[in-house]
Amino acid sequence: MLKFVVIQSAEAYHHELQQIFEEIHIKSYSEMPVEGFMESADGNADISNWFGSSKNPYRYFMSFTTLSEEKANKLLDRIEAFNKETEGISPISAYIAPLERSV
C-alpha cells in the first residue's frame, strides 16, 4: 500500500536530507522552499532561533513523496536516527499519511 510522506527540514539540513534520500534509494520526490513564522510557543522557552519574526522568517524546505509502507517507515526511522545524532533546535520532521485514492 502506498503512503504519502511529508518532510519538513531546516534549510541548514537540506543537504543531509538529500543524502538520506540517496541512502534509502528514494529517486522521486518534490520539494518547495517555505518561510515559517511563530510568535511564541508558550512564553517560557527561548525560541528566537527556531522560527523568525515577520521581519526575519525561518527558512525551511517541505518535501513530499509517495512510497511503499516499508520504504516510508525506513525513511522515518533514518530521520529519527539523524535527529538523535544531531543537536539542533529544529529537527527534521516527517509524517506518514495513508493514500486513500489516486488516479
Overview of the molecule:
The chain is α+β, with helices and mostly antiparallel strands. The protein is built from 2 helices and 4 strands, in the order E-H-E-E-H-E. The protein has helices spanning 14-24, 69-85, and strands at 2-10, 30-36, 58-68, 93-98.
Task: Give the secondary structure arrangement, pairings included.
Elements: E1 2-10, H1 14-24, E2 30-36, E3 58-68, H2 69-85, E4 93-98
Antiparallel strand pairs: 1-3, 1-4, 2-3
CATH architecture: 2-Layer Sandwich
Any idea what the shape is?
globular
Strand order of the largest sheet: 2-3-1-4
Total helical segments = 2
SSE class? alpha+beta
Tell me the Rg in angstroms: 15 Å
CATH fold assignment? Alpha-Beta Plaits
In percent terms, what proportion of residues is strand? 25-35%
CATH class: Alpha Beta
H/E series, N to C?
EHEEHE
On the 0 to 100 scale, the average pLDDT is 84
